[in-house]
Structure formats: structure tokens, C-alpha cells
Amino acid sequence: MKPDTKEIQFTCENRSLSGILHLPERIDPPLVVGSHGLEGSKDSAKQIRLSRILPEHGIAFFRFDHRGCGQSQGKFTEETSVEKRAADLAAAVQHLMTLGIDFSRTALFGSSLGGATCIKAWKSIEKQGIRLSCAVICAAPIQSRTISAVPTLADEHRPALPMDFFKKNLDFDLTSEAGHANHILILHGDRDDVVPVENARTIYENAGEPKKLFILENADHRFSHEEHRKIFEKMTLEWFQQCFKMD
What we know:
Blueprint: E1 5-12, E2 15-22, E3 31-35, H1 45-56, E4 60-64, H2 76-79, H3 82-96, E5 106-111, H4 113-127, E6 132-138, H5 163-169, E7 184-189, H6 198-206, E8 211-216, H7 226-243
Parallel strand pairs: 3-4, 3-5, 5-6, 6-7, 7-8
Antiparallel strand pairs: 1-2, 2-4
């Protein structure tokens, strides 16, 4: 590990979760906590990019594996839901506040299901007495029924997922909860064939002020093209800097 990173272990509902905290060279940095997508991990592309870019600009970034993913405990097929992931995210934020680091402000980042997780966790995090400054969410579903491509086939990280898994674990509508989120930047590609772009518009309509919606022209769900990744990096960094009131 580099001197500016710390391996972090924390618990949520008797599961040990694993993460990495990336610290900038300043005493009281603002903090962003990331939540990855359904099949992702703390090593997902956007998480890795932010772990490099944000500390370079004075912002701490924490990326972690949700239960059943990466190096964290738990069974993916039995313990994956928006509710459980929101609990993981709230536990991560709460644990970071106990490390003796004077984080000046706190914000969230979420991609795909991670964006939905941020919305779901917002109220419970603030109930802990932690004021959230802002959030950036990318390609996030607000209603599970709108998801166009359900990933049922097995891959190198997990077994095949039956449709019952999605009906039981991932049936959600967070429209009424989006109002808890504010100072939120919503990024979405207009060629997203997994989570239709209408989700972004619904989040924007229901989120609290201030808020901003940006639709990336010709971008897919993963922002696969480098030009879209650069737009994502630039807009995400600028949003956090603006919300954190950084010089």
C-alpha cells in the first residue's frame, strides 16, 4: 500500500467488509464514500478513477466491497438488496467518522445500483448526525421494473442468477425517497441499454434542490468510451469541489 492509502475493515450486521481509504496531502480533507454497482467491487473502473483523481485535488475517497462482493464477507445471491447495501454504506460512513481523521465535509458517490444505494442510505446516514454535503450518481435505477437488461448469466465472479433473485432481492421503487437527496449531480448516458435514461429524469424531478442533470450523448451504461469517461471525471470533480467550497 502507498503511504496515502489505508486498508480499512469495518462491520455491518455481523459481516466484515473491506475497503481502501485514499487520503490527500491535507489535514482536514472533505470525504467522498463510493458505492459500486450490482456486479462491481471497490476495483470497478469508476471507483479506481476517483481514487486517483479526487486525492490529487485534496479530496479523500473511500471505496469498499459491499457484502458478498470482492474481499467482503457474505453470500452475493442471499445478501444482495438495496436495503442491505444501504446499510453497508451507512456503516462505512459511520466507521470512517471514528478513525480520528478530521473530515471537513462528507459526500457520496454511486454508480448504477450504487446510485440507488446512495438514495436509499441518505436518510439513515443523516439520522446518525452526519450531514451530507452532496452526491454524484451515475446511470442509477430509481425503479427496478425499468431495468432493461437483467444480468442472469454466470460470470467469473458469481453463479447464474435466477429471475427469482431479482424479484425477491431487487424489487424497489425509490421515487419517494429521492427527495432526501440534495446537492445531487445525476449523470446518465442516452444510449444506456441496461438502465434507461428515464430513471435519471425521474430522480431529477424528485430530488431536493440544488440539483443538476446531465445526459451524456451516445454514452452507454458503463461510459465505455474514453471521451465519456473524461466528461464523467471532469463533471464529478467540479461538482464535489463546488459543493465542498474548495478554492
